[in-house]
Input
Amino acid sequence: MLWVASLAMGLGSQMAAVIVGWQVYDIHQSALDLGLIGLAEFVPLPLLALPAGHLADRLPRRIVFAGALLLNMIVMAALVTVTVSGATKLWVFVLLAAANGVASAIGSPAARALPPTLVPTKLLPSAMALRTMAMQIATVVGPAIGGFIFYVRPELPYAVAGGLMVLALACVLALRSQSARVRAERAGSPDWKSVLAGVGFVRHTPVLLGAITLDLFAVLFGGAIALAPLFARSILHVGAGGLGLLRAAPAVGAIAAGVMLTRRPSMRRAGRKLSLVVAAFGASMIVFGLSHSFPLSLGALAISGFVDMISMNIRSTTTALATPNELRGRVSAVEMVFISASNQLGAFESGAAAALLGAMPAVVAGGALTVLLAAAWPRFFPSLARIDRLEELLPGRRRTVPVSALTEPPEPPAEIW
Output
C-alpha cells in the first residue's frame, strides 16, 4: 500500500510539475521565473521541517502523511482553477508552489520514516530501491502523460493529478502502522532540545552528515533539470512533448539502476562508489549542457538518473540503518531539508546562473563543480569513504560496525551515540 501511495503521489506531482514549468516560462519567457518557483517551494521547508519531524515521531506517521496529501489535493484543485482562468499571473503560481512546499515539509519526514518499520533490515536496501523506483517510474510516466494531455485540455493534467492524490490518500489511510505511543514517550516533550535532536544526531554521525551534504552540493550545483523548459524551447526546439521526454529521461536511467539494485542490493565499497557515481552525475551534466542534439541530451540525462539512483539508494539506506526508530522522523526531516535545498535551491541557482551566464555555461560550470566536490569529499569524510557493506551499519553508531562485531567484546561507551 505504501508503494502504491508513493507511485500515485509521484505521478500526480510530476504531471503537475511539468505543466507548471511550461506555463510559468510562457508568462514572461524568463529563466529566473522558473527559479522563483523552486525558491517558493523551498522556503517553507527549513521553517517547518524540524517541527514536522518531531510530529512524525509523536503521532501515527500515516496520519501525518495523509494530512499532507490533503493539502496536495487542494493545490491541484487551485491549479485547475488558475488554468481555466488563463494562467497569466506569476504570483499565483509562486503562492501555490509555496503551498506545495508546506505539504512536502509536513508529509515527507513521516513518509520517509515508514519503510524501516515495514521490512526487516536485510531487505531494507531492496525496499528503499523499490520505493525510489516508484518515484522514478512516476517521473518517467508523469511528465510524458502531462505534456501530451495538456494539448487535450490545459487543466486536464491537474485534474488527473488530483485524482491520483485521492488514490494515494486511500492507500495511506489503509496502512496499519506501529503504535505511536512508545515513540512519543521516547521522543520527549515538544521542546527545542527534543525538536533539534535529529540535527544533533546527524551532526555527530559523520557517515550521515557526509552522505547527505554530498547529495546537497551535487544537486545544488549539478542539477539542471529545472532549466528543461528553456532547453526544450530555445536550444533543442522540441516543444512541450519534448519537454516531457527531457523530464522523463533521468527517471528512465534511474529505473534501470533500481532494477539492478533490487536484484543485487548488497554492494561492496559503498562509500567509495558514492563518490564515483556523484562524479559521473557531474560529468553527465557537462555533456547535457554542451549538447545541441536531442538524442544526446536524452542520453546524458538518462545516465545522470542512473548514477543518481545509486547515490540516493546509498544515502537513504545509510540514513535508515544508522538511525534509531524513535529518531527517524526527526532525522528524516533533517535529510529532507538538505535534499529539498538541493532540489528547490538548485532550481533557483540554475535559473539565476542561466540568467547571468547563459543556460549552457551555467550547466557546464555546475557539472564541473560537482566532479571536483566528489573528488574532494573522501578527504573531508574518511569514515564515509570506508563504508563497505551498508547492511553492516547499526543504529546509533558514529561509524560503521561489522555485523561480526556483535559476537566480539563491546566497544567502549565513548563510541556509542
Summary: The first helix runs from residue 2 to 28. Residues 180-185, 397-417 have pLDDT under 50 and may be disordered.
